[in-house]
Amino acid sequence: MNLSPLIDELIESFRCLPGVGPKSAQRMALQLLERNRPGAARLSQALDTALASVGHCAQCRTLTEEPLCRVCSSDKRDDSLCCVVETPGDVYAIEQAGSYRGLYFVLMGHLSPIDGIGPDELGLDALFSRVESGKVKELIIACNPTIEGDATAYYIADNLKGQDIIVSRIAHGIPVGGELEYVDGGTLSHALAGRKRLAGGAQGE
Amino acid sequence: MESRITLQPAYLLHRIPFQNSSLIVDLFTRDYGRVRAVAKGARGAKSRSRALLQPFQPLLVSLTGRSELKTLTGVEAMHQSLRLDSTRLFSGLYVNELLSRLLPNHAVHEALYGIYQDTLVALQGDSPLDHTLRYFELSLLAQLGYGISFEVLGDPPQSLESSSYYRFDPKQGFSPCSACEDAFLGAEVIALRDGNLEDLSGARAAKRLLRMALADHLGSKPLSSRSLFGKPRHSGSPQ
Ligand SMILES: [Zn+2]
Residue A122: which CATH number? Predict the structure, then answer.
């Protein structure tokens, strides 16, 4: 039964959201039209302006409506540190954690040759020329701990060999408050390989 | 193929996001060859299979379903994941890309499964990279029924002479020719046939020959993993 093509179109549009099936899309559409027209107007306006204005930061490629994002243009950030992440969502996650004071480079993905994504498709030259421009002293690779993330990290590190820059990768390990017994084998072996010395040894750290 | 498969040794070749929280996984199983399956909920934040469904992780998979696309009902680690670093990881990705481009679905390839596993183990160790990759390429072609015939075309076929030059046509085979840039020296072809790739010019010739043989089956789309070996310092490139 086709009650209203306009409502159907609205319901169908909500389905592009992650986790939204036909039932929830219908609930969202009817809720907005029945009970929250100001909210709907605001949503529609916000979507419209964001779509029209948000692009990529010229330096780190994260999403922003300004030529340079707030992090890149801030004078309170340490521009000798650059953290390489896969997505703008990763920037949000690290910013919310609150302890990192450096800049970012957003890959917008990872190397995945089997999906046809090589170094060119990922635009890694932009990262290498940023490093060559000289300010970055340490590149912190925060790619996901997946095979593709590993390949991306190795590729970047290999291509920066011989340059006067530290390339590091964030540690993978046991979640804070987690219990060893319930952690998968891969995470455990990463955690063991990346262990930290607490005492002993000649250097006495 | 049976509708229920339990604890089957397998490696994941490729994973594609599917719907909101699931994956479509391309598996190379020991007894059933390449099988495609849906891993429901495998991308969810709490999913335990997410960490396991990675390339180079020896798995035991359980599958059900009668259609082409199976459902993954269980996955366990058979052993610890193979650890490939740097160029050896790129080589592993190259091997996976080759398999995913050339291996048909649902054809049993038990010998190739063993060869693949041995290749991954060799990549993890410190075996000469060139040998490992050439051996895999050669075996892959042979196992898929595209094996290179190391004989000189003719009726009857002649054996290769080490001091003669040959032209290689992937569809036909070797035919005698004069010494030119495209020609292969008999000794280099014989070395590849016998698995002797120690000397550098032989290794280079083997790489070129296998590349020609593979190109015939890969079609026009280039192998993306070759772009990872862009720099000259990677001597082990499969290019
Ligand atoms: Zn920026």
Answer: 3.40.1360.10
Separation CA B124–CA B218 (nearest Å): 26
Q: Are residues B126 and B184 in the same domain?
A: yes
Task: State the number of CA atoms in the 13 A half-sphere of B212 facing the CB.
Answer: 17
For the segment B189-209, the average pLDDT, to the nearest whole number, is 86
B80·A189 Cβ contact <8 A: yes
- Mutate which: B24, B48, B93, B94, vs A, most A CBs within 10 A: B93
Domain endpoint, select from B47, B77, B107: B77
Output helix, strand, coil percentages for chain A, rounded to the nearest 5. 45, 15, 40
**What is the ipTM for the molecules in this complex?**
0.87
> For residue A197, is it within any domain?
no
Q: How far is the CA of A70 from the centre of ligand 1 (A)?
A: 7
Q: How far is B86 from chain A (nearest CA, A)?
A: 5
CA distance linking residue A45 with residue A51, whole number of Å: 10
Domain residues for the domain of B45 are 4-77
Give the domain extent around A20. Answer: 5-53
Residue B185 lies in a domain: yes
pTM beyond 0.90, yes or no: no
pLDDT band at B1; cut points 50, 70, 90: low
Does residue B207 contact residue B130 with C-beta atoms inside 8 Å?
yes
Which of A14, A15, A114 is the mutation pick for testing B, counting most B CBs within 10 A? A114
Q: Which residues of A touch B230 (CB under 8 A)?
A: 119
Of the candidates A110, A67, A113, A65, the one whose C-alpha atom is nearest the C-alpha of residue A90 is A110
Instruction: Find the CATH number of the domain harbouring B38.
Output: 2.40.50.140
pLDDT of residue A192: 86
pLDDT in tens, B91-136: 999 999 999 999 999 899 999 999 999 999 999 998 889 889 999 9
Please tell me the distance between residue A103's alpha carbon and the centre of ligand 1 in angstroms: 7
Tell me the pLDDT of chain B averaged across its residues.
89
For A113, which of B54, B80, B225 is closest by C-beta distance?
B225
Question: Does residue A20 sit within a domain?
Answer: yes
Question: Over the stretch A7-25, which tens digit does the pLDDT of each residue have?
Answer: 999 999 999 998 888 999 9
Asked if residue B173 is part of any domain, the answer here is yes
Question: Is residue B239 in some structural domain?
Answer: no
- The C-alpha atoms of residue B174 and residue B194 are separated, in whole angstroms, by 16
Task: Please tell me the distance in Å from A16's CA to the nearest CA on chain B.
Answer: 10
- Residue A116: which region, alpha, beta or left (left: phi > 0; alpha: psi -120 to 50)? left
